[in-house]
Amino acid sequence: MFGGKRVCVDTSVIINGVLEELLKTNKLRNATIIIPYAVIAELENMVNKKRKPGFEGLNTLKTLRNLAKKYNIKIEFYGERPNLEKITLAKSGEIDAMIRKVAKETNSILLTSDRKQYEFARIEGIPAKYYKPKKIVDNKRYYKPKREIKSEYRVEDIPEKPEYIILAIRILELLVTICGKENAKEVLDYYHSIKLISEKALLKLYMLLKGIEVTESLNRPKLSVQEHQMFIILLERLAGRKVDEDLIFMLELELKRLKKFAEETNSSVVSDNLLSGLYNKVRLIANNTEDIKDILVNIHSSNNSWGNHEGDI
To answer: Are 15 and 42 spatial neighbours (Cβ–Cβ below 8 Å)?
Structure first.
């Protein structure tokens, strides 16, 4: 049926049995199958969340790999790999658009079980074939938890209250001023990877970040250890907890270490005013009693910004 042709598969035909059926009925012999990296990313996200469709899709791709030589099928991976934000917004059509782009750029026939995907492909002039699903997709967790467990993230969600939204915006303004917008996203992704921010909270911060604009940014690619500690304290407050005094104490120790470093090297980078001012303002901001922008006065008080000393992350 598709012998000698190029076909592009979307996620739906992989997880609902269509691709497996086409393989078993020998309709893909001598074909070239294009698998978008957007599809791989979506399947990986499902597997990481222990969703059944992800595991079933993984098994289908294993079957494809095993039968490729027998049926003279060529497999190619193509396209852009989406970031976490696009994967999370998959229902809005971001991933579908990336898959259609792959089909168009590779001159492939798009195989899909998603009616909307099929119709949009036809509108864009992309050859497409619609298949009814061969089985019902069960999106439940592959392993059911035996008992309810506490969230593994420090910030599970951002409460829908004005004071928390304002605090989140101020934290993002500070982050963008230090790192720039693109680097700020990388910092947020890093905090997600180390279990500080959940995917749900991360998505909300992404949405707020889109509206953040600052007149001047240091555009530093990395934060110093002290700055990471400062943001951890602010995230604790954002999660609705009272700030742990131990965290404040840890920050104070690091600031003293930095002061000692400056004294030993006769450096003018760090002054007493910078140290005491930053410490006091972090404590105030953590208690949500002072505008977060004021802390920038301390950061900008030196021409040489933090991050040049040992201990950067």
So the answer is: no
